[in-house]
Each structure stands twice: as structure tokens, then as C-alpha cells.
Design goal:
- It is a single chain.
- By secondary structure, the protein is of the alpha+beta class.
- Helix content is 35%, strand content 20%.
- It has twelve helices and 13 strands.
- The strands form three sheets. Strands 8, 9, 10, 11, 12 and 13 form a six-stranded antiparallel beta sheet that branches. Strands 4-7-5-6 form a four-stranded antiparallel beta sheet, with helices on one face.
- Helix 4 runs antiparallel to helix 5.
């Protein structure tokens, strides 16, 4: 098959996406597919002098394999594009995607996981992997997701805040602590803070202005971090995350050795069944398809609390979804092939 692996873009998670895309493209080529790895924002700027079939055999950029410790400066990213065209699709990207048999979505975060790219591809009749535009948009919004699933699974109490600098003091005074402050539409724990007291909450809300001043304020639940991949609506073996320092933030997610990851998670059969059923229930409620990964906290009483679900889970060398698939007997290349096959079957049913 001729496959475009679409990565990068201008999300705060662009570096994670480029790492995922590189590994996916490498796996697909190993399976005998023609795979072109393309940064959605820069397009063919990354391959000067190449076009057409040459893009499917171009060397994969080594600099994209590793995820930096910090999220990228998106203003610097935007200013470095040479092409003077508008929009988030770089030169030649849509034309290349139209010619492919399918686009493998290696995008993460805003403008990639939020349904906008999926909607554009639907309008252009371009096949792509993963959930459709509506499920993607809902799952990207942490507040909307929790509203829809609150009657289906256990989720910590929360409130949504859209605020400016003048609202920080008021929000700080009225919000109970400890709590977790999360940008409403970001991933990879970018901008997430745990506030144990009012001063930490004030600092977290102030920092949240960098991410648009729209956040979920969620009751903090102490416990074990458990994540569950879902493939074709069925839960994979759960994985437990034990960060060596702090919580499972951006750096601990993508720096090798920063966290211990145990799969299958060393939890009771009852707990494993509880998180599996909850993950599948969220997947069904949001009408997702193909694959996702749901995040939970398992508290000291053994009760599982749903936090969020990701419709395009990371596929980097340290990502969790491939580890869970491996525990179910599906290696990385087979997982990529399964995602493609399932996506094409889903598209035929629509």
C-alpha cells in the first residue's frame, strides 16, 4: 500500500508526533508498504528537490526520533516555515494525501487529535486511521468528555473555567484543594499541575493562561496510575505507570527511564476487570473507533477513577499503547497493520 504518515503540525505535542511518525513509517516500510513521512505544517519543505514516488523512499529524519525534554516553542516553529501559504497544511501535503491509499494519523494534540484534520479529510474523501471527526473533537475536550461519561463511569468531581488574569484570585479562593489543573484541550500532560494548596493553585492558574485560560479543575485522587489501551472496542492488558519523581508529566512520559512501566499492571483481577470495562464503556459512549487509550487512577480502596481518553495514543519508543499491545501478543508492526486494516473496514461501514 501507499501510505502517508502524517505527523508534526503546530500542536504543543509536535515533537511527540514526529517521534511517533518516524517509528510508524519505519515499521510500515518493514512490512513492505510504501510509506512517506510528512510534517503536516512544513510539508515538502522537509524534502527539497524530492517529489512523487521519491518521497516514499526518502530517509527518515534522525532528529525526529527523540522527544525533547520540553515542549516546542510554537511561535518559533511558525516563523521558520519558508512557504508563505496560509493554514496548517504545508505545501504539497493535501495533494500527497489524496494520492495515498490511506493516511496514517501520527498527529497528537490540537489540530490533529481534535477532529479538524479528520473533518477536512472526510470532505476530501481521503481515508485515514483512527476515530472520526466528531468522536475526536469530543474526546479532546476534557470537560465535554466528563459530562458525557459521568453517568457511565466514575470520574472525579470537576469544574470548567474559562478565565483571564483578573479571574485568577477569585478562582483560587473558591476552588477546593488539592486539585488537578488541566488545559481543557491539551495532551501529554502539557500544562497539567497538581495543586496541594492555594498558593500552588494560584501559580497553576496563572501558568494556565499560557494555554488559553480554559481549564478543568479536577478533584485530586491519590492512587496508582493505570492506563488501558482499547483496540476495536476491546481493552488491552492494563499498564501501571510509576514515575521516579513527581507525577506522569511530559518529561516522565517521553524520556527513557523516567518512569517504571509495568504491563500487565500488577493489580487484582477485579481491578483489572473494572478498568477494562470502564475503558470500553467510555469508548462506546463517545462512539470512538479503531483504537484509543484511557487513563485512570486506582485509589487505595480499589476504586477506579476515569480521567481522560486519547484517540491518537502515542506510538513513540516509550509510549504505552504499543507495550499493551505487545502484552496481548501484537508486536509494533502488527499493531500498525491492525490499525490500518481496522480503519479501512470502519470506513467501508460508514
Amino acid at each position: 500500500m501507499k501510505i502517508v504518515v502524517l505527523a508534526g503540525g503546530v500542536s504543543p505535542e509536535r515533537n511527540v508526533s514526529l517521534s511517533s511518525g518516524t517509528k510508524i513509517a519505519e515499521a510500515l516500510r518493514g512490512l513492505g508498504h510504501q510509506a512517506a513521512l510528512v510534517d503536516m505544517y512544513f510539508g515538502l519543505e522537509d524534502y527539497p528537490g524530492l517529489a512523487g514516488e521519491d518521497l516514499y523512499t526518502a530517509p527518515l529524519p534522525e532528529r525526529w526520533r527523540k522527544v525533547d525534554r520540553t515542549a516546542p516553542d510554537l511561535d518559533a516553529v511558525r516563523s521558520s516555515r519558508q512557504w508563505d501559504g496560509k493554514g496548517d497544511f504545508g505545501p504539497g501535503v493535501l495533494e500527497l494525501c489524496r494520492e495515498a491509499d490511506i493516511v496514517f494519523m501520527a498527529l497528537h494534540g490540537q489540530c490533529g487529535e481534535d477532529g479538524r484534520v479528520q473533518a477536512a479529510f472526510d470532505l476530501l474523501d481521503i481515508p485515514y486511521t483512527g476515530a472520526g471527526y466528531l468522536g475526536s473533537a469530543i474526546a479532546m475536550d476534557k470537560d465535554l468528555t466528563k459530562r458525557l461519561v459521568a453517568g457511565v463511569v466514575n470520574t472525579p468531581e470537576w469544574s470548567f473555567a474559562e478565565y483571564t488574569e483578573k479571574d485568577v484570585d477569585r478562582l483560587t479562593s473558591k476552588t477546593p484543594v488539592p486539585c488537578v489543573v488541566k488545559p481543557v484541550d491539551s495532551g501529554s500532560s502539557i500544562g497539567v499541575s497538581i495543586a496541594y494548596d492555594k498558593s500552588q493553585l494560584h501559580a497553576a492558574l496563572t501558568d494556565g493562561l499560557r494555554y488559553g485560560g480554559r481549564c478543568v479543575l479536577e478533584r485530586y485522587v491519590k492512587g496508582r496510575e493505570i492506563q488501558v489501551g482499547i483496540l476495536d472496542g476491546k481493552a488491552l492488558p492494563a499498564i501501571e505507570i510509576i514515575p521516579k519523581e513527581g507525577f506522569y508529566d511530559y518529561e516522565n512520559k517521553y524520556q527513557a527511564g523516567a518512569a517504571e512501566e509495568i504491563c500487565p499492571a500488577p493489580i487484582s483481577e477485579e481491578a483489572a476487570g473494572q478498568v477494562a470495562r470502564a475503558a470500553e464503556a467510555v469508548f462506546r459512549t463517545l462512539e470512538l473507533s479503531v483504537y484509543s487509550r484511557a487513563d485512570f487512577i486506582l485509589d487505595d480502596t480499589g476504586k477506579a477513577w476515569f480521567l481522560e481518553i486519547n484517540t491518537l495514543p502515542g506510538m513513540t519508543p516509550t509510549s504505552l499503547m504499543p507495550q499493551e499491545a505487545a502484552a496481548a501478543g501484537i508486536d509494533y508492526p502488527a499493531l500498525c497493520q491492525h490499525i490500518i486494516d481496522s480503519s479501512l473496514r470502519q470506513r467501508r461501514r460508514v
